Write the C-alpha cells for this entry.
Amino acid sequence: VKNPGPQGPGALAVFVFSFDPILNKTTFYKSFFSVTETTKHFNHSRPHLSRYLDKNKLFKNKWVLSSSEK
C-alpha cells in the first residue's frame, strides 16, 4: 500500500501483527508509514526486514510483517 504519510507519497506502509502460537492467531499490533520507520522501531536493517515483509515468515519468532492490512 503506497502511503501519503510523513515519509512521502511513495513510501511503503508496513503493518505489524503479533502471532500467538497457542491460539494459532495473528492480531494487529502497529502500523508504520514506511519500511525505514519500521527498521528504526525494530532496530534492524532494511535488507533484514525485507526477508520477512510479505513472506508470511515470523520475524523474531513473534511478528508478521505485511504491506497490506490483511
Observations:
- The chain has a mean pLDDT of 89.
- The beta strands are 2-3, 11-12, 14-20, 25-32, 63-66.
- The first helix runs from residue 35 to 42.
